[in-house]
Amino acid sequence: MALHPVIDDVTRRIIERSRDTRGDYLARIEHAASQGPHRGHLSCGNLAHGFAAEDTPSKDALAAGQRPNVAIVSAYNDMLSAHQPLGDFPPIIKEAAWAAGGVAQFAGGTPAMCDGVTQGQPGMELSLFSRDVIAMATAVALTHNMFDAALCLGICDKIVPGLLIGALSFGHLPTIFVPGGPMPSGLPNKIKAKVRERYAAGEIGRDELLKAESLSYHSPGTCTFYGTANSNQLLMEFMGLHLPGTSFVNPGTPLRDALTRAAAARVVGLTALGDDYRPIGRIIDEKAIVNGIVGLLASAGSTNHTMHLVAIARAAGVQIDWTDFSEISAVVPQMAKVYPNGTADVNHFHAAGGIQYMIRDLLDAGLVHEDVKTVVGDGLHRYTQEPFLDGDELIWREGASESHDTDVLRPSADAFSPTGGLNVLQGNLGRGIIKVSAVEKEHRTVRAEARVFPHQEAVLEAYKADQLNQDAVIVVINQGPRGNGMPELHKLTPALGQLQNQGYQVALLTDGRMSGASGKIPAAIQITPEASLGGLIGRIRDGDMIALDSDAGTLDVEVDTAELEAREPTTFANDVDSEYGFGRELFSVFRRNVGSAEQGACALIDAQV
Fold this sequence. Notes:
Blueprint: H1 5-17, H2 19-34, H3 44-51, H4 56-64, E1 69-74, H5 89-99, E2 103-109, H6 115-118, H7 127-142, E3 149-153, H8 159-168, E4 175-178, H9 189-200, H10 206-216, H11 228-238, H12 254-268, H13 280-283, H14 286-298, H15 305-315, H16 322-329, H17 346-352, H18 354-364, E5 373-374, E6 377-378, E7 385-390, E8 393-398, E9 422-427, E10 430-435, E11 445-453, H19 456-464, E12 472-476, H20 481-484, H21 493-501, E13 506-510, E14 523-528, E15 545-549, E16 554-557, H22 561-566, H23 588-593
Helix pairs in contact: 5-12, 7-8, 8-15, 9-10, 9-21, 11-14
């Protein structure tokens, strides 16, 4: 089917806007590729250091330059349930790479913090900037000039975007992303949400809450709700960086191990030493980025990607902005309902047809680009296939052509919503983002008085003291990248949800961000310019009337703009110090140099790139 005219127009606009920066990027990676396999430029002493710990066959192969060398870059640790399975992958990869005619070395590790552990804690103020640290750690791992290709092992939140930004700085290297898969389903999400709301209402104690949480997050593997981690996995398929159908295969299964072996073998065949050279910098282009945006919107994915995708695109010389997201959202239907946008989890979504069904349908509807490069060949149609084992042999077959559960996954022609559920907000406070896929129609428009707070703890204290029993727009300021590193404010969701259950009109307004698991409360987030840079959100006072219309994309405080600008910034006597403790002093360089949310909130890439 012909490409949808809006998708075509937005793509053309991005290509034109990015002409100079994309051209500069491609010239840089072309120059790097022209130097040949970089081991040939190392001195004998350098090279000896590079393979000193290897066995004799690997040493001989690397010395002779006869086999491509694959870098393993991993975000493994034992604490993250999603990343714990990655500890078993390097031996599998090394064996498979050798069998395919290559060598694999563990090039380096990256940090991987868990937002599920740090929600509401001081360490959360390091979370967003951990993406940039991961990007730099990836570059350090690849910088030894020993490698012809890379495998990036990571799953969660900031980790996949960081790995990808880092890999794109070595855009001449072929790179495949290798996931670990979600944990099996635990306590149903609907029950978990009810337990959280009952705890917020004081109806149950911490013991009962912890029991429910432990039944939800119970084993190795990615958390099964559709937050940023699982949005990452879907995006890697839509942008052609996974092997098809690998995102949601559970860890510790024969199929999972077979896919890891297949990724190692495949990347060996993509190097400049072979005849199918596919560098990552050529795969991630304007069309791949648009496909990623479409996949995010059709699946009702995480709002964190309104920053991450911008930063990823800029790392490849591609310039996108929130207007691109908004225009694409207006024509891309919401095809999936996965918690927090529904009750099903990602295992259920995968069983219903999952990513392969979505890509097939979106291709048929002309809503994604077919003519793209991927790690498995040319054309996005390759991602309509799913893997399975025929005995010990890994093969691919066509995925579902019909949804197996229309309560979870629907065709675009009969979608849950005609739009992607992600809107850009504009008004006298600037620009922001709102995700409405989990917000009921009657709650999408709110006009109420402001209640202004310096941080989420102050909101929760007011809630516990019964000071929020009213229609209100809860305004939390100084939560932007420059302010305090932009921690997620997900801890507010149960309390605000309880107020909504009591019949109050409630909304959240902040220059911070909500989790990828943002739920049923209308949340106007990532307001730009942020309060710490003089944004007018920092001059709102208690009692100001705020009007939010999620569907129309408008957000205004009903105060004359001149009066707003004349006000002094709102201050609080007991503001939380975000400069020191929990390592925050080490991250001041990021806070000083970070770009705005719409520029990707990245301290590594110049705001104009």
